[in-house]
Each structure stands twice: as structure tokens, then as C-alpha cells.
UniProtKB/TrEMBL annotation:
A Pfam family per the record: Phage_int_SAM_1
Domain Core-binding (CB): 12-101
Protein name stated in the entry: Integrase/recombinase XerD
Species of the source: Actinopolyspora righensis
Gene3D superfamilies xrefs: 1.10.150.130, Intergrase catalytic core (1.10.443.10)
Amino acid sequence: MPTSTRDTPGRQPLTDWVEAYLEHLQARKLAENSLRAYRRDLESITAELAETTGTDGERLPVDSVTAQTLRSAFARHAASRSASSVTRAWSSWNGFFRFLVVEGAASGNPMPVVPKPRLAAATPKPLNGEETPERLLRLIAQGARKARNPWPERDLAILSTLLCTGLRSAELLDLTVSALAGRSGERRLHVRGKGGSNRSIPIDESLEGVLEDYLESRRLRFGRRLPGGEPLFVNHRGEPLRRGGLQYLVRQSLRAAGVSDRVQRGAMVHALRHTFATRLAEDGANATEIAKLLGHASINSSQAYIDVTAREQRLSVRANRTHRVLGELSRGSESE
């Protein structure tokens, strides 16, 4: 933390404390994407605070930030951003001020009186079509995705892992070779999840076989053994697969399998996670079980999959032609 004037931490520049907080988050082993998002949120609101107070952002002290200036800064910030972006920034600053209170740089957390948008409950967006996941995997295994340097074993392993474990993009990219642990037939994936939480996901022998085929193809492709600390998934040059590369792979695979029209708007890689969770709910898993497998901090997030599944089941029942006849009969009986 800033140390030049320990006796008056509140007079330290806000930007110094932002860096201290980001170091604190980094020590918690957050994913790179999460850290970048925190930095964007903290720096953008700091810039708005500087404009609101007429102070150089590099010199703005912590104790000059009040509930009133924060409300003004967030109002300016919200003018050109979506509700979800504003809510995320609010959460970032709420955590930041809790840190400042603990470090003695702020006497209290003003964020509870700073308004934030109300977000509609997120609706799961699985792949449309009962057989879509299976069609996708079969065609990718057959080499439907044409590339300059095709690697169907790798593509199939990535898509299968997403569909059979429900991992987030960042979690998948963070996996190492040693994350695949356990004896044959009892394998598990050790996952470092959101917020630094860890979980262990059991994998079926079928997925284990797909992963082993991929790892063998990788050894042959690059002619070397695979130390446990290496990334589990790599690009065609043997380098760690990045977020953009993963999104491109999934997009091209969906297109090659002829199912890109079955992805709901606003979903791509996440559609595979939603498909995994929705199928868990369809097979009778409860919210606690789904939360444990998906790494949800609250079972409320998992309950959405159960609610959607129940709603879809009710719609399917209503579509039964027998029910339409019963409706006509009941209306007829009322008119007599």
C-alpha cells in the first residue's frame, strides 16, 4: 500500500490506492480478464471524479471522494454505458472502498448510497435444438472445420470439455496439463474458478478418451513431452490459447457444423456452458448440485436453469394435441 505518509493515508492520491488494490487482487490469483475489468472500472470512475471535482486525477486524494461526488461520477459514467457495465463498475468500487476502509484510508464505504441500475434476471442461453451439441461434436470430429493447419483432435477436445464440464472461458484457458488428475476411469479436472475459488469436476471416461487423444496428437505434432505446468490447450504454434483464439475456434466450429443459427444472441462460448447447466437441470440435478459444478457463489444463479427447464417442460406439455382437445371439451361443457 502507499507508504509515503502512513499517518494520513486518506491524503494519498486515489490513483496510488487503485494500484495498491489491484496488487491485492492480483495476489488473490484472479484471472487476467478480471483484473483488466477491475482496472477499467476503477480508472474510468477516477477520471469522472477528476472531472467532477475539477482536480488532476493523479493528485485527487481519497478523502475528497464523497457520496455526492461518487453519485455525480457514476451518473456521468452511466450516460454512455449499458446497465450491466455500470453495475459491474459499481461492484468494483464497492470492493475497492471496503479495501480502503480496512487499510484506514477511508472512514466508511459510501457506495450503498450510490444508485445502481436494476438488472433483469439473466436468462440462460443454451444452444437451440435437442441434438445440436451432438451434431456439433460429430462433425468437428470428422474434420468439418477447415483450417490452414487442421487439428480436429484439439478442436473436439475443447468443445467437448466446454459442453461436458460447463467451464467458463477463463477457466478453460487457465487449465494446465496437470489439471487433468486421477487414475484412468476416475479422472477429474481441477479448476481455478472465479474469484480464486477452486473446484474439482469429475469427467466421464468418454471425455477422458477425447482428452487423451488430443494430448497424444499434441505430442506427435510438436515432438516433445508435456510437463504438467504447461497450458492444457494451445494454438497451432504450441502457444497458450488466448480468449480471442477460443472465441474464433468456437464460432468457426459452429459455422462448420451448420448450427451457428442455433446460438442465441449475446452468447457464444458461454452458450456451451449454459447447455451443460440446462441439461443438468433437465436430468434432475438440484440448484446446489448445479452451483457446485458450475462454481456459482450463490445457488440463485443455478436456480435460473431449473426455472427455465420447468417452464420449457410446461410449454411442451401444453403443446400436446390431447390438451387442446380437452380445452375444447371443457369450454364446450361450460356453454351447455
